[in-house]
């Protein structure tokens, strides 16, 4: 049944607003120095709050995907707004102890992040069946660009009212934005088809659809999980330390470093479009191979850089690769396991995001704390990226069981 396209574009706009608010978590690095200075916490201790939030996000995304089946997307999205806003607001009481920051920003806020992240992706692919790749790219790009607004705003607030009051102000803003946008998150009516719908335009090329249980019985699922985990680990290490790293290595002010965080957030968002678009031409695994090799070179070069412009350029390219992983992996997952249950299959794969947030930020924070500089950590990550390039080379589609014979899925051979 045809439906007015204006309604679905309003839903799409609300989804982008929701993701931008949630993506503010990527501005975390602007809080690192104020928190360490105010409470004399170590760099790893402060970084752990961000790590907990992203780890919780990965788990909660899968939970949110399952919960939507019974509660519907609006309930899940609005609950996400309550938890996310409340968690950030309550972080204003972190002067009572570091554990408060971990529980509020990390666990409560992280749960809201995860529940909210999966909703626009799951909803918009149903409203835009003829533009699935485009619309999911729009949604996840919004998340990637969240720091563009938040980094400079948070920096000004911290300078004017202090870091704890900044948490309270941002928590209220996130609550309003996510709950309001979440109200628009509804599934289309049963049998919905947009005007001018052409069923052939959205047909998958071939290959049977796997259930979640069947996908987990293949080694390819774990291979894709590892690829996402390693790509996340590298990029998020930069995200977690971007502002203080820029100040330390290039000598810029806190305001200039915060502006850089906003600039590289553009790369996080645009990379989700660019690499996914390229993967349609050259293949998903070749895109990941290129991103791993490129990041190995960039992480090796960064310690040799002292100019702010060049530092920003290298960080920008790394964040293009970081975003590219999130833009390309849903299609990679659908290539291998079909589109019917890709929500639950990819939802569980997003746990790699959480575990990647443990490896990258904690590695770079602990090495920085123990050595007094970032050089050694950056070289270690460069080595990890170089070794990671071997995984895309061995990946190939799982065999599909048809009529008693095993056949490869032709649509994912690239």
* Largest sheet report: 2 strands, antiparallel
User: Strands of the biggest beta sheet: in what spatial order?
Assistant: 1-2
The CATH level-2 architecture of the largest domain is identified as Up-down Bundle
So how many helices?
17
Query: What fraction strand?
Result: under 5%
Going by CATH, the homologous superfamily of the largest domain would be MFS general substrate transporter like domains
| Coarse shape | globular
Low-confidence stretches: 1-6, 201-206, 401-413
The CATH top-level class label of the largest domain: Mainly Alpha
CATH topology annotation of the largest domain: Growth Hormone, Chain: A
Element order: H for helix, E for strand: HHHHHHHHHHHHHHHHHEE
Outline the structure in words.
The chain is an all-alpha fold. It has two domains: 1-190, MFS general substrate transporter like domains (Growth Hormone, Chain: A), CATH 1.20.1250; 210-400, Up-down Bundle (Growth Hormone, Chain: A), CATH 1.20.1250.20. It has helices at residues 5-22, 29-39, 43-71, 73-90, 98-127, 132-144, 146-161, 163-182, 212-216, 219-250, 254-282, 284-301, 308-337, 342-349, 351-371, 375-388, 390-394, and strands at 399-402, 405-408. It has a two-stranded antiparallel sheet. The two termini are 36 Å apart.
Primary descriptors:
single chain; 17 helices; disordered C terminus; disordered N terminus; 2 domains; mainly alpha; Growth Hormone, Chain: A; two-stranded antiparallel sheet; 414 residues
